[in-house]
Amino acid sequence: MFTFVSRRLFYAAITLLxxxxxxxxxxxxxxxxxxxxxxxxHCNKIVIEANRHRLGYDKSIWDQYWLxxxxxxxxxxxxxxxxxxxxPAPALGYSYNENKCVTQMLADTLPIxxxxxxxxxxxxxxxGVGLGIIAARFKGRWPDxxxxxxxxxxxxxxxxxxxxxxxxxxxxxWNIIPLNLSGYVSLFSNPFGxxxxxxxxxxxxxxxxxxxxxRFTRASILETLGEDYIRTARAKGLSEKKxxxxxxxxxxxxxxxxxxxxxxxxxxGGAILTxxxxxxxxxxxxxxxxxxxxxxxxxxxxxxxxAGVVIIMNLIVDMFYAVLDPRxxx
Amino acid sequence: xxxxxxxLGCNSLENLLEIKDLRVSFxxxxxxxxxxxxxxxxxxxGETVAxxxxxxxxxxxxxLSVMGLxxxxxxxxxxxxxxADGDGTVDVVSDxxxxxxxxxxxxxxxxxxxPMSSLHPYFKIGNQLAxxxxxxxxxxxxxxxxxxxxxxxxxxxxxPDKRVNDFPHQFSGGMRQRVMIAMALMNTPKxxxxxxxxxxxxxxxxxxxxxLMQKIQKEFNMGIxxxxxxxxxxxxxxxRVSVMYAGNIVEQGSAEDIFYRPMAPYTVGLxxxxxxxxxxxxxxxxxxxxxxxxxxxxPSGCAFAPRCTxxxxxxxGSCDASLPNLTGVTAGHVSRxxxxxxxxxxxxxxxxxxxx
Lengths: 330, 356
Prior knowledge:
The complex is a heterodimer of chains A (330) and B (356). By secondary structure, chain A is mainly alpha-helical.
């Protein structure tokens, strides 16, 4: 197990390195002058060149990449004297537009996205897997049919429809949850405020994902129920409840964990629609804004973050499988 | 209780299992699939009864019916399957599901065709074995573990006390089938249903498994219902044989009757299709022409008639008109055919000479 984890961590690091290289290369190859992007319309050559030098864009692409990597571990200084700007490690770059370290910008936005994604994940797993189990258990009877209606609605309603619908009715018409709260509060300091802040985005995300998970869970359970070893379990005289709980779920839920981990990783990379509808200043909004504004260091950093989360989730899933399935003992 | 098959000399007290007029059909959008039609069978302690027939003849459906393992929402059963349990009997078809479940693994056990997929890949085999014991003896965990080791030892797994902690993927195919047998024996059942227990195994292992089953049968005085399409296996272990075709029993009798005095054209065809080691290079393998009928639209009359080579020997039109009854002149040997029984041996022998 230990060798497996360390080997996988090593591979994860290599993958991240390659991703960062690729992202860096893409932006280096784009027909933009990153130095020219740092000053607005009223700009002159001297300012551009000064910025170019200050931000290191006058160096070769390899040197720039090296400085980027070096900054992650050692922090980085931009410019000298009165215009000096220091980003402590792990420095992922400096956003000229916002005059902030990219790491700081991620640190501001990531908690919101994490809270959004974790809450939504829990909610959609409960709803999706729960309904899927019920649908499989009562296949062909009314609970199954009812779940199909939910699935149809959930998959065909895009996030911006459910989100706006919830916002208009729950917040504006019925005033159940007041609009425009004071902003993000942590769960521990103000649980009620936290819930008010996140509940609608959670529901919005959960509805669309839960629908998929209902279908997937149902299919996975029914497939597992057709396995020979389930027939063996029944032949032992086990009750149907035990057959389901002990023999079916463990095998049927494994692929769902894979799916959930990747969906979760995708949300960290940016639940752009949901964050925009509910005006949550998360990673998705940050990415969107930096793309609009050509704030390249931020785009590089959010891309690497998204890739990193996918890699980490994959690692976790692999370890989960090793625990679950003895055939993948490591 | 009346005797099921005239002349078999059966006695309800002796029989562990009595299937009477079993019909199983599966409603589909295209119509009902009549998988088993009017099947009657009995099994005594210490006896091996084989059900043979080609794929789709209803063998496995019959065995799953005895276990009560059909999904009652997709299968329609009628008739009765009586299983002796202590002093009483349970009818698998009509009795409460919970009662039937209580029989499974305790009075009737089953081993399946494919040992590679019949064991749960996630659980240690010791736990899988113990589970079967614990269902019927709740709470006796230590006893179950000891029993699991004992049974693994009995079926010839070396170092059973260590192997109980192994997972199924750490066993070979033959060993897994031994584990399946051990699992079936956990509660010392009176009836063992073996659904093609050797089909997925290679020939040397097949022989070992069959020998093991015979040894265990003696030890526990079990009745074995053996489902197979391998006539070699039947010849080796069966006392009595039922030959099935399209959901019907077409011939039933002692193994000797079936092999040496076959009375149904289908049985004759089956026996002729067994390759013989004396075949020369130029001889071709004999097969029964045609395809098994669709179980949704069974031919009216005898289901085998469209493939039967002896149809001209039967009274004109009789084969298309009705399904012949299961009748016989010798005790315990019954068959379905419109050709008068006295004429059959000669007709079959004549045809066989021509074939050769």
